[in-house]
């Protein structure tokens, strides 16, 4: 795929879903620049690493950084907003407002600031595609209040930006991963905060999502095969949303109950 000789910028590209997306884009011949608050090039990645720490929650870093990246590497024609932090699980009465602010600042405000800085430039050039990484947490209820609110915000923001720039040739879409096997998720399991069996029990497919599966949806939304699509949110969740309510009816059937 070619994004018309521009570059694709991937935030949070040093790890996880961002890194998998950068690798897939680079593999298919796109020129990719990754930025991260902790800049590090994943092993074997042929994308360009922006060497300075890029904090999506810092207004100055974002506006100066986007200008500097375009000056160095050319126009951004594709943007993947994959930088993010996980939500802390706390009972409502114990939520610390510094944690609340951090999650909203990075996951919602940061997504908006990068999308705006890049999208305004794309709209002036009448060309571009943006994909925001939201979460099924933004579509459901769970004990991650700030994170769920931030991700619901990202899904709605995706539509407001799609409405703003649709006639200027800029498409804006979202993907909502389910529980995806990244270092961040593995760390949550290792620390005991998350339980691998609980994470997969409610999914129709009975498993976690792999980062490459989210990356494939992102790459589709960035590329020409989705040219008529804007303002949508694609869950990539191994059937988490489809399986969620089944516990109320006794649980999802196992493979042995399927018709022969
Ligand atoms: N892994 C999952 O199960 C899952 C599920 C749903 C949604 N998501 C979302 O996917 C996105 C990527 O998550 P992941 O699992 O790949 O996590 P990850 O921790 O593996 O990768 C996130 C990357 O973002 C970077 N980052 C964090 N804060 C930043 C900031 N302020 N500025 C710039 N970069 C920053 C990190 O350094 C890291 O490289 C996040 O938005 C996350 O909320 C993940």
Element order, helices and strands? EHEEHEHEHEHHHEH
Tell me the count of domains: 1
What is the helix fraction of residues, given as a range? 40-55%
In whole angstroms, how far apart are the ends? 41 Å
The distinct ligands, each listed once, are: nicotinamide-adenine-dinucleotide
* Low-pLDDT segments: none
User: What's the CATH architecture name?
Assistant: 3-Layer(aba) Sandwich
- Write down the CATH class: Alpha Beta
The CATH topology label is Rossmann fold
Strand order of the largest sheet: 3-2-1-4-5-6-7
Q: Describe the global form.
A: globular
Annotation, overall tally of beta strands: 7
Largest sheet: 7 strands, parallel
Quote the beta fraction: 5-15%
Task: Return Rg in Å.
Answer: 18 Å
Category by helix and strand content: alpha/beta
Structural descriptors:
single chain; alpha/beta; 7-stranded parallel β-sheet; 8 helices; globular; binds nicotinamide-adenine-dinucleotide
Write the layout of secondary structure elements.
Elements lengths: L6 E5 L4 H12 L3 E5 L12 E2 L9 H15 L2 E6 L15 H29 L2 E6 L11 H21 L4 E8 L5 H8 L5 H6 L9 H12 L10 E4 L3 H4 L17
Parallel strand pairs: 1-2, 1-4, 2-3, 4-5, 5-6, 6-7
The chain binds nicotinamide-adenine-dinucleotide.
The site of nicotinamide-adenine-dinucleotide has 29 residues, from helix 1, helix 3 and helix 5.
Overall description:
- Helices cover 41% and strands 14% of the residues.
- It is an alpha/beta fold.
- The protein has one domain (7-178, 210-242): NAD(P)-binding Rossmann-like Domain (Rossmann fold, 3-Layer(aba) Sandwich).
- A seven-stranded parallel beta sheet has the order 3-2-1-4-5-6-7, sandwiched between helices.
- Strand 5 (128-133), helix 4 and strand 6 form a beta-alpha-beta unit.
- Helix 2 runs parallel beside helix 3 (97-125).
- The longest helix is centred in the middle third of the chain and has 29 residues, at 97-125.
- The radius of gyration is 18 Å and the shape is globular.
- The structure holds nicotinamide-adenine-dinucleotide.
- Nicotinamide-adenine-dinucleotide binds at residues 11-12, 14-18, 36-38, 54-57, 82-85, 106, 110, 133, 135, 177, 179-180, 182-185.
């Amino acid at each position: 795929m070619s994004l018309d000789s521009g570059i694709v910028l991937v935030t949070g590209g040093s790890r996880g879903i961002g890194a998998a997306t950068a690798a897939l884009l680079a593999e298919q011949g796109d020129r990719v620049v990754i930025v991260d608050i902790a800049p590090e090039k994943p092993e074997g990645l042929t994308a360009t690493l922006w060497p300075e720490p890029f904090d999506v929650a810092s207004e100055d870093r974002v506006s100066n950084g986007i200008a500097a990246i375009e000056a160095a590497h050319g126009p951004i024609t594709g943007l993947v907003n994959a930088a993010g932090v996980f939500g802390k699980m706390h009972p409502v009465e114990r939520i610390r407002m510094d944690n609340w602010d951090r999650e909203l600042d990075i996951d919602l405000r940061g997504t908006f600031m990068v999308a705006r800085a890049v999208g305004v430039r794309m709209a002036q050039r009448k060309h571009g595609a943006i994909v925001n990484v939201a979460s099924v947490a933004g579509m459901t209820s769970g004990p991650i209040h700030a994170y769920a609110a931030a991700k619901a915000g990202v899904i709605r923001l995706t539509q407001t930006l799609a409405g703003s720039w649709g006639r200027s040739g800029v498409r804006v879409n979202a993907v909502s991963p389910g529980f995806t096997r990244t270092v961040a998720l593995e760390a949550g399991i290792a620390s005991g905060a998350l339980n691998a069996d609980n994470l997969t029990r409610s999914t129709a497919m009975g498993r976690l999502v792999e980062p490459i599966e989210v990356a494939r949806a992102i790459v589709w939304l960035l590329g020409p095969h989705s040219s008529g699509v804007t303002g949508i949110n694609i869950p990539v969740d191994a059937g988490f949303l489809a399986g969620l309510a089944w516990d109320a009816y006794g649980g999802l059937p196992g493979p042995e109950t399927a018709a022969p």
